[in-house]
Amino acid sequence: MEQPAHFAALVGLDWSDQKHDVCLVDSSTGEPELSVIKHQPESLNEWALSLRTRLRGGRIAVCLEQSRGPVIYALMKYDFITLYPINPTTLAKYREAFSPSRHKDDVTDAAYLAELLAHHRDHLRAWQPDDEPTRTLRYLVEHRRRLVDDRTR
Among candidates 25, 8, 132, 108, which has minimal Cα distance to 59? Predict the structure, then answer.
């Protein structure tokens, strides 16, 4: 098995339509830091660039609960960020293991995402964007599915 890359920081990012809760674990200290980013492209951009400066250009691993969408597309432009999208069910089951009450909290979810990266990164796959023909085919298939659903409804 391939040895995982060294990251200057591990980040759990729990996104929502209003804000993004972030748990950053600096690899040099191991201490988690919690923060909130506004759900605006400028805020996300500012956050990413400040991390690049703070961590002196070191690589950053970001774990989040989506494989496509505005946050993924906003972060994929940075060459120093490696994205680890996970299925929301994975996080829900992980949360359930430590919180039997099933209480959901965005800050805690961000910490769990960072923890998943820290302890289980070798089982997660780094996100690789699809090539142009694959993306086109996926959008056409999704469009066809919507048309079929509309027709049968």
Answer: 8
Report the domain count for the chain.
1
Within-domain flag for 148: no
Task: Return the CATH number at 32.
Answer: 3.30.420.10
Global pTM reads 0.79
Quick one: pLDDT band at residue 70, thresholds 50, 70, 90? confident
The b-or-e profile of 5-38 (16+ CB within 10 A means b, else e) is eebbbbbbbbbeeeebbbbbbbbeeeebeeeebe
Question: What is the extent of the structural domain holding 75?
Answer: 9-128
The label of the residue with tokens 């990164």 reads 121
Residue among 113, 105, 111 at smallest CA distance from 88: 113
Residues 75 and 33: their CA atoms lie apart, in Å, by: 20
